[in-house]
Each structure stands twice: as C-alpha cells, then as structure tokens.
Design a protein that fits this description.
By secondary structure, this protein is α/β, with parallel strands linked by helices. Helices cover 24% and strands 25% of the residues. Helix 1 packs across helix 5 and helix 2 (71-82) runs parallel beside helix 3.
C-alpha cells in the first residue's frame, strides 16, 4: 500500500512523525506537509501561484517534503507530483488538538483529508486531544512543556489502517475522522456521529475585561484599538450520547466517525 501522510501543524510537528511511525510497517510511506503551522485554514487551495517544495530530514532520519502552502496544497502536490504513483490512502495528522463536530470543515487536518477524497483517494484524519490537566508538565528547571503522548493514537491508527488493508473502507464511507484523548479511561474505540458543534464562538473588543490580556497587543501604525475586534472560542461542554464529543470528553475514549464527503441529502426529490 502506498500511503501519503500530511498535516496542518507543519512538517516538523511531532504528530506527523508519530503518524509515519504508526503505519510505516504497513506500506510505503511518503510525507508531504505544509512548511509551517496552518491550523484552521479549512480547504484553502493556492491556485496559479508559486509554491516552494523543499526536502527535509525528520528526527528519525527519514525524508519528508514541505510545501509553502496549505494542508490541501500539500496533499495535491504530494499525490500528483511528489509520489510516483497515486497513493492508496492519505492520512492527515496526528493533529495536536481536537477535531470534532460539524466544525471540522474549518480544520486544516480534516479538510486536507477532504481534498484527498476529491482526488479519488480515501483518507483518515487523525487527532490527539491534549488534556491540559495532564499534558502540561514541568521539567527539572521548572520550565513548562507539553507531553505529546501519541502511544494510544499510534496504536489505534495502526489498527485502523490494518483493518482497511484487510477489508477496505465500508460501503458509503470515504473518510474516517479519528480523535484520541491523551487522558483516556478506555482504549476501546467508539464509532460515533458528528456533534452539532465543537466551539462556542464570541466576538470581543477592547472593552472586554475577561479576555483583555489576549486582546491587547502592539497595534499597527494606523490602527486604533477601537477599530479592532477579535473572534474567540470556548470548547462546548455538553454533547449528545453517541457523538464524537461524548466519546472523547465524557467517556474519555477514542472516537471514530465514518464520513462521506458527498454531503447531498437524498430524500427531498419532490420537495420543490
């Protein structure tokens, strides 16, 4: 199996190496990713503009390529230019964060997988939810760091790809969205549906006292704070049982959501 791996966190993000290590025994793996972080860019594509394609060495000594564009750009360049043959599977991630609910259409990780499906290649978008209560740690000097423990995420991703190799994708499914919690209570994967939303979004200005510290930053030469607004967000706290959010945050177990990128609703033929 020929596997293309990409992400939205950038070619040197630890999650892309974790994804490669998770499946490198299952096929021929090629890594092509953005040259820098491209979180929350959705399915943005760079048309008729130059993109810089560069080669790099990952921490394990293996070859990877970067593209000076979006996650979707990286998938297109990887599948149609870098690889000698069209990949059989595209994996995006392992994203350092959560990608659930109908908000996935803003995710660079998931939309890179959408782009793969549009090219006729089935895909897996994979993410690790990093619980701030357990993942933020201090070293011997008291400096804070994030403990990216990809152990379970790598295991689930490996098992999922093994099953796909043996059985193929289920009928009607061309994309799996996988989310694994770092602070899990069960390793058993739950098949889920999308939650209604992941983020409560708000707009603040310079009068907002609670988040004043994130709003106030150096202004441009012709900018005034009165002219500025900022979109902020908070994770939704309540999720319907059976949804991806419920599995991840309530049951604290991996969530696997089967998707079809064709979002047509078929039952309205006589509606209009």
């Amino acid at each position: 199996m020929n596997i293309l791996i990409s992400n939205d966190d950038g070619v040197f993000a630890p999650g892309i190496l974790a994804a490669k290590q998770a499946v490198e025994d299952l096929g021929d793996v090629t890594v092509v990713a953005p040259d820098k972080n491209n979180s929350s860019v959705g399915r943005r594509i760079t048309l008729f503009k130059h993109l810089q394609l560069s080669s790099h060495e990952l921490d394990d000594g293996s070859l990877a390529y970067s593209v000076s564009g979006s996650p979707a750009d990286a998938v297109i360049v990887g599948a149609n230019y870098v690889m000698d043959t069209k990949p059989d599977l595209v994996i995006t991630g392992i994203n350092q964060g959560v990608n659930i609910s109908c908000d996935i259409t803003s995710s660079g990780t998931v939309c890179a997988a959408f782009e793969a499906v549009s090219l006729g290649i089935p895909a897996i978008a994979s993410s690790l939810f990093i619980d701030p209560k357990t993942s933020y740690k201090q070293d011997e000097k008291g400096e804070w760091y994030i403990d990216y423990d990809f152990t379970l995420a790598k295991k689930v991703l490996h098992d999922l790809v093994s099953k796909i190799i043996d059985e193929g994708f289920p009928d009607g499914v061309n994309l799996f969205n996988l989310n694994v919690p770092s602070n899990y209570e069960s390793e058993e994967v739950r098949i889920t549906h999308l939650s209604d939303k992941m983020l409560d979004k708000h707009v603040i200005d310079n009068t907002h006292e609670e988040k004043k510290e994130i709003f106030n930053y150096p202004l441009g030469e012709n900018q005034k704070s009165d002219d500025l607004v900022m979109i902020t967000s908070d994770l939704v706290k309540d999720y319907e049982e059976g949804s991806d959010g419920y599995a991840l945050f309530v049951e604290k177990r991996p969530s696997l959501t089967p998707l079809n990128v064709n979002m047509t609703y078929e039952d309205l033929k006589d509606w209009f």
